Amino acid sequence: MTHRKAVVLMVLVTLLWSTAGVVTRHLEAARGFELTFWRSAFNALALLIGLGWLRGPALLAQLRQAPRMVWASGLCWAVMFTAFMLALSLTTVANVLVTMALSPLLTALLARVFLHHRLPARTWLAILVASLGIAWMFGHEMGQGGDGPQATAPLAWLGIVVALGVPMASAINWSLMQHAGRQVAGDAAAASTASDMPLAVLIGALISALCMLPLAWPLQASWHDVGLLASLGAFQLALPCLLVVHLTRVLSGPEVALLAQLEVIFGVLWAWLWAGEQPSSAALLGGGLVLAALVGNELLAWREQAGHAAASRR
Question: One GO CC term of this entry (predicted)?
Answer without folding.
Answer: membrane
